[in-house]
Amino acid sequence: MTHQEVRSKILGVGSYVPPRVWKNDDLQKLMDTSDEWIHQRTGIRQRHWVEGTTSTSDLALEAAKKAMAAAGVVKEEIDMILFATLSPDHDFPGSACFLQAKLGISGCPAIDIRQQCSGFVYGLSIADQFIRGGMAKKVLLVGSEIHSKGLDKTTRGRDVAVLFGDGAGAVVIGATSDLSGPHILSTHLHADGAFAKELWIEAPTQANDGPRLSAEILAEGGHYPKMNGKTVFMHAVRRMPEAIHEALNKNSLKIEDIDLFLFHQANLRINEMVAKQLEIPEEKVFNTIERFGNTTAATLPIGMDEAIRAGKLKPGMTVAMAAFGSGFTWASAIFKW
Ligand code: UT7
Predict the structure, then answer these.
(1) Burial profile 174-192: b = 16 or more Cβ within 10 angstroms, e = fewer
(2) Which domain holds residue 144?
(3) Count of domains in the chain?
(4) Is residue 326 domain-shared with residue 189, that is, in the same domain?
């Protein structure tokens, strides 16, 4: 009997952003900022922010339904849920469990991934390993974030608040043994916890002697994300090219062999510098930051969905993706579409 190697492939993609748009000018009502500052430094023009009781798992549900429809997979076929987010509905249980209940399925494993902007690529890797190992057949991987409810939307927090948007993206990943067709070639994951506090949220916390959250912590804004922007920027422009080179080397590919690059969307300037270092022609990089801001774990699947709709991601293409973010974490993947 001949042994056929099992690999994984992306069967379908979907995304969802809440309808309410905040343009850069709208933020001026909340804080001392300007369209000029935001656009010049980051490339962002607008972001989508939720209203009311909408939760991270609600956004995820919409993206998941679209991804399953695109994949032609019914919810009963899903035998693993992976949910990448830094903005879960609650501290516990994980948002994957809430999503599972909203999908109306039960029994399959439901796992949260806490790798921030790299969460989607980490999830792709986990799905790939489970499928290759025969432990799962149809994995639903979602990246979903609601940043807007957790940002300091005053002048004090403007360096972070203007950057982030809400949204969700999802893929369904299944098995294949046809290596001439679509499949994931490889994934590469990294982290360096020495930089954990360069982009983090301090509270609620169990790392101090007092209550997890107090009036003092709230008054100081300890429950809002803090970022050392310049350090993050510096590491992002180094780590993403490194991760792309690693993925190319693993597959004996060259930059020219890649048809489309999807990078995490934290700052257009970062992606321009990464593309320059790698000598990638502009038309091979697909950016979405202008319309969505940084949607963390949702960024790459939203980018994939947008690229498909824009006719930029086409069957037969070889695609490379890379992400960098809080942790620090960074990761890359190459797949045939
Ligand atoms: O997805 C996670 C990964 N995140 C990233 O990769 C982000 C990486 N970092 C960056 O993209 C950039 O560092 C930022 C866009 C966040 C900031 O750009 P910067 O060029 O590093 O600006 P800065 O923080 O040094 O601030 C420059 C000035 C400051 O004023 P002074 O001290 O020069 O008077 C800030 O107070 O800009 C001021 N500033 C703002 N002004 C208007 C900071 N935020 C704002 C704002 N609007 N929103």
Answers:
(1) bbbeeeeebbbbbbbbbee
(2) 3-176
(3) 2
(4) yes
Structure tokens that stand for 193 in this block = 């916890």
| Residues annotated as part of the active site | 117, 264, 294
Rounded to whole angstroms, the Cα distance separating 12 from 77 reads: 14
Indicate whether 68 and 204 sit together in one domain. no
Is 262 strand, coil or helix?
A: strand
Residues lower than pLDDT 70 in the chain: 1-3
Check which CATH number belongs to the domain holding 54 and give it. 3.40.47.10
What are the tens digits of pLDDT across the range 124-150? 999 999 999 999 999 999 999 999 999
Tell me, in angstroms, the distance from the centre of ligand 1 to residue 230's CA. Answer: 8
Cβ of 329 below 6 Å from ligand 1: no
Handedness of CA 92, 95, 100, 106 (dihedral sign): negative
pLDDT tens for 265-288 read 999 999 999 999 999 998 999 999
- Nearest-angstrom CA–CA distance, 89 and 255: 39
Q: How far is the CA of 279 from the centre of ligand 1 (A)?
A: 26
Beta strands 21-23 and 46-48 are: antiparallel
